[in-house]
Amino acid sequence: MSTAEISRALGKITCPCGLVGVKQGEKHDLTTVAWFTQESSNPPQVMVALHPNRYVLELLDAAGEFVLSILADDQEKIAVFCGSHSGRDVDKIKELGLATVPSAVVTTPGVKDALANLECKVSNRFQSGDHIIITGQVVAAQVNSDKKPLLYYEHNITHWGR
């Protein structure tokens, strides 16, 4: 089977779009992710795959915590910007005028109007292929149930029902 056919088949996996946010000291960065999921119920945990060159990973390693913000259908601009700019070079929150909400347990704030914000404490980190897998225990969450998720399908950001 060709690499192109494998890539095409993998593109059929529909994923929600989210942001991994980390605040360490005065630095606060967000990066767009589509490869994340719940991986445990007891304790409640999520896993997220991050490219090893992502600036947010440096902050995450130092902070030991993160917020996974599941983006709503109307937050595509945020997903595109945060996925195409490095926090090493630009303050994404300032550039976007992004509103945040305080977290209940962790230092990192959540994204205002996100579908959900999951506050996580890092429980594990390991290399898998060309990404780093981070697992985090969910210690608090905020939900906005009136929204639909922004999706990643066929290697592109797409919208619910389109």
Keywords:
162 residues; alpha+beta; seven-stranded antiparallel sheet; three-stranded antiparallel sheet; 12 strands
Note the overall shape. Answer: globular
- The mean pLDDT is 94
Strand order of the largest sheet: 3-2-6-9-10-5-4
Strand content: 35-45%
What is the H-and-E element order? HEEEEEHEHHEEEEEE
Number of helical runs? Answer: 4
Question: How many E strands?
Answer: 12
**What structural class results from the helix and strand content?**
alpha+beta
What does this structure look like?
With 162 residues, the chain is an alpha+beta fold. It contains four helices and twelve strands, in the order H-E-E-E-E-E-H-E-H-H-E-E-E-E-E-E. A seven-stranded antiparallel sheet has the order 3-2-6-9-10-5-4. Strands 1-11-12 form a three-stranded antiparallel sheet, with helices on one face. Strand 11 (150-153) and strand 12 (156-159) form a beta hairpin.
Blueprint of the fold:
Layout: H1 3-10, E1 15-16, E2 18-24, E3 27-33, E4 36-40, E5 45-50, H2 55-63, E6 65-70, H3 76-84, H4 92-96, E7 100-101, E8 110-111, E9 116-128, E10 131-143, E11 150-153, E12 156-159
Antiparallel strand pairs: 1-11, 2-3, 2-6, 4-5, 5-10, 6-9, 7-8, 9-10, 11-12
Short description:
This protein is α+β, with helices and mostly antiparallel strands. 19% of the residues lie in helices and 44% in strands.
